[in-house]
Design brief:
This protein is mainly alpha-helical. Helix 2 (25-46) packs parallel to helix 7 (129-138). The chain has one domain (2-226). 29% of the residues are buried. It has ten helices and three strands, in the order H-H-H-H-H-E-E-E-H-H-H-H-H. The chain is globular and about 50 Å long. This is Probable membrane transporter protein. Keywords: Cell membrane, Membrane, Transmembrane, Transmembrane helix.
C-alpha cells in the first residue's frame, strides 16, 4: 500500500501538469473504458481453472481465510490468526505471510503501478480502485481479501493529492453539496463492505468485481466515444 501511495503521489502532481490541454476529456474517458474492459477480461481469466493454477499461494491463503471467517470450521492456528505479517523488507524484495501462505514482490512494481494508475485517475477524476484491484491480484499475486484494504489506502492517498492539486493549484470549482450527499452513501458502504467481504468466497468477490467492471467499462466507453453513456447516471 505504501509503495502504491508513493507512486500515486508523484503521478497526482505530474500527470495533470504535463497533459492538461493535450487531449479532450472525451478521449480520456473513452480510453479509460477500454482499460476497464481489459481489466475485466484479466480477472475473468483468473477465475478459470488455468488462471487459478498460477496463483497457488493466493488460493491457499484464501482457503485458510474462508475456513476461519466464512465456514468457521476447526480452530484457527496462531500463525493464521496473525493475518498479514512482514517477514522481510528490502529495496528489491518485500516478503510477508498471510494466513500461513508466504508472498513476496519487488517494490518497484507497486511504485510503477501506483504512478500509472493514479495518473490515469487524475486525468478523469476517478478513484482508481477498478485498476488497483486487478493490478494487485495479477501482478503482485496478492489474495483478494487483502487487496480491498490495500487498494483503498492507495486510493485515499492518491485522491488527497489529486483533490489538493485540483482545488488549490488549479483552482477547479467543487460542488460541496454533492460531495456531502455522496459521503452518506460512502460511509455506509465503507462499513458494510469489509463486513460483507468476510462472508463471500474469494472467487465470487472477483466475479462481482468483473460484473461491475463490465458495467463501468461500457458506461465510460460509450460516454467517451459516443458522447453519452447508455447507462443512466454516468
Amino acid at each position: 500500500g505504501l509503495c502504491l501511495a508513493i507512486g500515486g503521489i508523484l503521478a497526482g502532481y505530474l500527470i495533470p501538469l504535463l497533459t492538461v490541454g493535450k487531449l479532450s476529456v472525451s478521449l480520456y474517458v473513452g480510453f479509460f473504458g477500454i482499460i476497464v474492459f481489459a481489466v475485466a477480461f484479466v480477472l475473468f481469466y483468473e477465475t478459470t481453472p488455468k488462471g487459478q493454477e498460477s496463483r497457488k499461494a493466493a488460493r491457499a491463503a484464501a482457503k485458510a481465510f474462508e475456513e476461519a471467517h466464512i465456514k468457521k470450521t476447526g480452530e484457527v492456528s496462531a500463525e493464521h490468526a496473525q493475518g498479514v505479517r512482514v517477514t522481510h523488507w528490502g529495496l528489491s524484495k518485500i516478503s510477508f505471510t498471510f494466513y500461513g501462505a508466504e508472498f513476496s514482490f519487488n517494490p518497484i512494481w507497486p511504485l510503477l503501478g501506483g504512478f500509472v494508475i493514479n495518473g490515469i485517475s487524475a486525468l478523469i477524476g476517478v478513484g482508481g480502485g477498478f485498476l488497483y484491484v486487478p493490478f494487485l491480484t495479477s501482478v503482485t499475486k496478492l489474495p483478494m481479501f487483502i487487496v480491498a484494504g490495500t487498494s483503498a489506502l492507495a486510493v485515499l492517498v492518491g485522491m488527497i493529492v489529486n483533490i489538493f492539486n485540483m482545488m488549490v493549484v488549479r483552482a477547479v470549482p467543487v460542488d460541496f453539496v454533492l460531495i456531502f450527499t455522496e459521503l452518506i452513501g460512502i460511509a455506509i458502504g465503507s462499513v458494510l463492505g469489509p463486513i460483507t467481504s468476510k462472508k463471500i468466497p474469494e472467487i465470487w468477490l472477483k466475479r462481482i468485481f468483473i460484473i461491475l467492471a463490465i458495467y463501468v467499462g461500457i458506461g465510460y466507453l460509450t460516454k467517451g466515444f459516443l458522447g453519452h453513456s447508455i447507462f443512466p447516471g454516468m
